[in-house]
Amino acid sequence: DIQLTQSPSFLSASVGDRVTITCRASQGIRSYLAWYQQKPGKAPNLLIYAASTLQSGVPSRFSGGGSGTEFTLTISSLQPEDFATYYCQQLNSFPITFGQGTRLEIK
Amino acid sequence: EVQVLESGGGLVQPGGSLRLSCAASGFTFSNYAMTWVRQAPGKGLEWLSEISVSGDNTYYADSVKGRFTMSRDISRKTVFLQMNSLRAEDTAVYFCAKYRSLGDGAPDRAFGVWGQGTMVTVSA
Lengths: 107, 124
Fold this sequence. Notes:
The structure holds two protein chains of two kinds.
Chain A: E1 4-7, E2 10-13, E3 19-25, E4 33-38, E5 45-49, E6 53-54, E7 62-67, E8 70-75, E9 85-90, E10 97-98, E11 102-106
Parallel strand pairs in A: 2-11
Antiparallel strand pairs in A: 1-3, 3-8, 4-5, 4-9, 5-6, 7-8, 9-10, 9-11
Chain B: E1 3-7, E2 10-12, E3 18-25, E4 34-39, E5 45-51, E6 58-60, E7 68-73, E8 78-83, E9 92-99, E10 111-114, E11 118-122
Parallel strand pairs in B: 2-11
Antiparallel strand pairs in B: 1-3, 3-8, 4-5, 4-9, 5-6, 7-8, 9-10, 9-11
């Protein structure tokens, strides 16, 4: 199985900050990576697919990059509504796997 | 509006069974693969299963293989998750999701639309 490791697991930041979350895969997954945002009590929401393509309706302050084994999710200027948990996901092969999550909190 | 709506969760004893349903609306159901994901209380996301567009192919996580069965009914625009031999560690919110891309195996696939989830509690 392909393991995904996100770093950091916890991040404290302020409104207006630029933050980057990293997702490392245990083996190459080409660009078959997605990023999701989840708020407490809610379903996850797709942000980025194919490593770097912004899902329709997602603000442009979110961006994704990388390929192979190392990927990033960047939020260019944090807004109050961005404080949530973020997950990466690989869809290169079964079983599909998720990273352990990165909890982003207000400093 | 594109929607998927789960139902069928509840309290069940260890060793028992439950069938979850996921009703689709607002899109051509027969063109999309579907999937189930769960989230135990306070934990992360765990992919469970996927069913292909045709329904001929299903895929499972090792944690549920042999106990859970996913199926789809095109006429009812519904997917199901039959869960047998339930254990305490199956306690979770179960989400149904629709792939964002048409067909099977698209390079730009991801879980584009999620339901609100249904809670399954396995306890004596």
